[in-house]
């Protein structure tokens, strides 16, 4: 048995990610808040106060910085910034600007996501992404974020997981309830075109604010693996659910790779994981090498010129030792990809906090535990372990 150390490149982003609606609490003007309180939606539990990070973001950043992380990805909430159409809240813009300045003051480089699944209620009522003028409304919102991102923000994400936005739109149109046991529902084609157009308009708006900002978007990478003889079926299944969104990133500065598990595809479609496979709290197969497959597939599609950043990767578990094991396997894959010449510029774990996972607080992805009554934050051993590598950029690796 040999023991080696891999050193990540200078300037490598080493951090954790969150999303506003999942941690802030009381995001009352968003479409998701309305959905959570609609009995017909059958949401298990509402977000309510969530982690109260709207008021406790300084505690969150203090902990991340103390642990050794150098980067923090968080999102700004469109429903707060533009709670009514055409009305932009100066107070909320100042709030998010304070977060940017707070991150910088703590030595955390902020990566700001402009849209992480939620939209204002008025935008949903207007017709959402496929309504006439929706792209222009999103671009106007991005322009309004200029005071937040114009100074000190190097990385901006336009939209998080647009392929999931299109998938959820397709699910809504079909009238189906819930996701299949393996794979994803068919994305809505009209929504696919709309969010791609919104992304391109947002990229243009961000570059007009400051051409030095590195701008991109993040994709939910399902790691589609073909069973013997199903290569063509896998490519056909994957393209509308993933590849078309990766292809839309050509010309961007970077693309976010977000992977958690794999999806095996047979001649007749997705095949569930084996009955004896280890599963996480989300019932996904435990598969830490997923991120390596996702990085290589994304690089194969885009070729050189667009940097890769792992913007989400993690595991929902109550056993923190399994979280460390998962991250160990995942980071071995990231290091191997870099050694093979892929331009991987960062790794941001999901999630900084145990948070609201779109219907339930039960799937605990967090590096930091949050008491639901007192909101006390407690770093888990995995947070200490992962954060320790932040300043050194060194990953201990064991080989045969």
Automatic annotation (TrEMBL):
Top-rank taxon: Bacteria
The reply on keyword Manganese is: no
Q: Which InterPro entries match?
A: GH, Glyco_hydro_1
Q: Which UniProt keywords apply?
A: Glycosidase, Hydrolase
Q: Name one Pfam family in it.
A: Glyco_hydro_1
- Give the record's family classification: Belongs to the glycosyl hydrolase 1 family.
Q: What is this protein called?
A: Family 1 glycosylhydrolase
Species name: Streptomyces tropicalis
């Amino acid at each position: 048995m040999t023991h080696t150390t891999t050193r990540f490149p200078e300037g490598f982003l080493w951090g954790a990610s969150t999303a506003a609606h999942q941690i802030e609490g009381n995001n009352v003007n968003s479409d998701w808040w309305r959905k959570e309180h609609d009995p017909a939606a059958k949401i298990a539990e509402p977000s309510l106060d969530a982690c109260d990070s709207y008021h406790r973001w300084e505690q969150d950043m203090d902990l991340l910085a103390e642990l050794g992380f150098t980067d923090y990805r968080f999102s700004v909430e469109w429903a707060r910034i533009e709670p009514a159409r055409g009305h932009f809240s100066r107070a909320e813009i100042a709030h998010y600007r304070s977060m940017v300045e707070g991150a910088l003051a703590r030595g955390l480089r902020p990566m700001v996501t402009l849209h992480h699944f939620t939209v204002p209620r008025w935008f949903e009522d207007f017709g959402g992404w496929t309504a006439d003028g929706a792209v222009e409304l999103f671009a106007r919102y991005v322009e309004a974020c200029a005071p937040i991102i114009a100074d000190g923000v190097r990385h901006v994400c336009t939209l998080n997981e647009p392929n999931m936005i299109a998938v959820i739109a397709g699910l809504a149109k079909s009238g189906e309830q819930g996701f299949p046991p393996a794979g994803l529902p068919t994305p809505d084609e009209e929504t696919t075109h709309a969010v791609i157009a919104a992304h391109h308009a947002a990229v243009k708006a961000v570059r007009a604010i400051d051409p030095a900002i590195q701008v991109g978007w993040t994709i939910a990478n399902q790691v589609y693996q073909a069973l013997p003889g199903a290569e063509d079926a896998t490519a056909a299944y994957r393209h509308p659910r993933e590849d078309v969104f990766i292809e839309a990133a050509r010309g961007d500065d970077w693309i976010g790779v977000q992977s958690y598990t794999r999806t095996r595809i047979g001649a007749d479609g997705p095949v569930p994981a084996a009955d004896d496979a280890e599963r996480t709290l989300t019932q996904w197969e435990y598969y830490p090498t997923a991120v390596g497959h996702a990085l290589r597939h994304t690089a194969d599609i885009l070729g050189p010129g667009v940097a890769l950043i792992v913007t989400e990767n993690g595991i929902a578990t109550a056993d923190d030792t399994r979280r460390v094991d998962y991250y160990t396997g995942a980071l071995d894959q990231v290091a191997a990809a870099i050694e093979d010449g892929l331009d991987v510029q960062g790794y941001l774990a999901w999630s900084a906090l145990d948070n609201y996972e779109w219907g339930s607080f039960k799937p605990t992805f967090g590096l930091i535990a949050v008491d639901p009554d007192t909101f006390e934050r407690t770093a888990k051993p995995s947070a200490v372990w992962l954060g320790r590598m932040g300043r050194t950029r060194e990953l201990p690796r064991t080989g045969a």
